[in-house]
From TrEMBL:
GO terms for molecular function: uroporphyrinogen-III synthase activity. This is Tetrapyrrole biosynthesis uroporphyrinogen III synthase domain-containing protein. InterPro entries: 4pyrrol_syn_uPrphyn_synt_sf, 4pyrrol_synth_uPrphyn_synth, UROS/Hem4. GO terms for biological process: protoporphyrinogen IX biosynthetic process; uroporphyrinogen III biosynthetic process. PANTHER family: UROPORPHYRINOGEN III SYNTHASE, UROPORPHYRINOGEN-III SYNTHASE. It comes from the Eukaryota. Residues 98-344 form the Tetrapyrrole biosynthesis uroporphyrinogen III synthase domain. GO terms for cellular component: cytosol.
Length: 357
């Protein structure tokens, strides 16, 4: 497994446990551009916006990618998604103004689905593979997009989805990119989708469902919320989940991570400046915590004082934090308020400003 620690200037690294996004990775760009303030040795109080610049010191971090996952498409289920885009025939020649030759499973109220849900970039990539290589006629994709809603959980997923939408599904609407979590997205969908497809007694709640493209490891908060028995029947939205990619821990991840951490700790010039590990998912957490000497022989937190560790831990959000606490009894040093580069950066900034030297 390759990483980029040896080719960069001797800055303290921030380990990003992910594969860099292509063609540009916003986490890498963020850390290249931003410096972080921390208290100088002479300061008795954390620096503030009004503190003289000479009273605080600044540090930049070198973003180092250490991929945790190996992803593969679920070929059989991709064929199912492709079939949903292909034309279908019914007894009616036209529904909602669409010729039967252009109708498919996504034909709005007359179809099975009114949209798709994405909570990961890998699911978007799976859809892109279908649209790019599936042989779906361009006329059908364009017609399908007129009624299609694409729900997305956050800005990173939206950035991956937008160029696909623009190229293959030009009239589709992307919605929900500021949700941040699956739970927030579910509530946004309830409000938005039920306005698009209001149910009446006459139509017997015949609103189309939503297709949720997922990996084999996911939370059930979205389907559980949208199909909850506590909702009025006419507010419920049927969700079909389809696994379109599979994720496994990348072979060789643990020794690769151990190697970069060891080299970084050995070359750390200023003990006041902690290294950082950014965890994006529960997968591989045990290897991460072992490497950082946070777990004992029973895979439980040693309870070591964070100030005694050279490397701190920040999670992308509360889901991964809760997993670390429940599984290992370990609470990360920082939890990003938003699952974005800025959310990670702000968490680190606040920690450094509050840190005792």
């Amino acid at each position: 497994m390759e990483n980029n620690i040896s080719s960069r200037p001797q800055l303290p690294p921030v380990f990003l446990l992910k594969t860099p996004s292509s063609p540009r990775d916003l986490y890498e760009e963020y850390f290249f551009k931003n410096a972080f303030a921390f208290r100088s040795r002479q300061q008795s109080n954390p620096p503030t916006d009004t503190t003289d610049a000479h009273d605080s010191e600044h540090i930049k971090y070198d973003p180092v990618f250490v991929p945790v996952f190996s992803h593969s498409f679920h070929t059989q289920n991709l064929d199912i998604v492709k079939s949903y885009f292909m034309p279908t025939t019914t007894e009616n020649d036209r529904i909602n103004g669409k010729e039967a030759s252009l109708r498919n499973a996504f034909s709005g109220r007359g179809g099975i689905y009114g949209g798709l849900i994405f909570t990961s970039q890998r699911a978007v990539e799976a859809l892109g593979h279908i649209l790019e290589h599936g042989g779906i006629p361009a006329e059908i994709m364009s017609s399908t997009s007129e009624d299609l809603i694409l729900y997305t959980v956050g800005p990173a997923t939206t950035r991956t989805l937008t160029p696909l939408r623009d190229k293959f599904l030009p009239f589709a609407t992307i919605y929900g990119d500021e949700a941040g979590t699956g739970e927030n997205l579910a509530h946004l969908i309830l409000k938005h989708y039920n306005k698009l497809y209001p149910s009446t007694a006459e139509d017997g709640n015949q609103k189309p469902g939503l297709l949720f493209l997922v990996g084999e490891q996911r939370r059930d908060i979205i389907p559980r919320t949208l199909m909850s028995s506590t909702l009025d029947e006419n507010q419920r939205i049927n969700i079909d989940e389809l696994v379109v990619y599979e994720t496994t821990q990348m072979e060789g991840f643990e020794p690769a991570f151990q190697d970069v951490v060891r080299k970084a700790e050995e070359s750390l010039n200023d003990e006041r400046t902690p290294l950082w590990t950014v965890i994006f998912s529960p997968t591989g957490c045990d290897a991460v915590l072992r490497t950082l000497n946070i777990l004992d022989e029973n895979n439980k937190s040693t309870g070591i004082d964070p100030s005694k560790r050279k490397c701190r831990v920040i999670t992308i959000g509360p889901t991964t934090r809760d997993y670390l606490i429940t599984k290992y009894g370990f609470e990360p040093d920082v939890v990003a308020r938003k699952p974005t580069p800025e959310g990670i950066g702000e968490g680190i900034k606040e920690y450094l400003l509050a840190m005792k030297v």
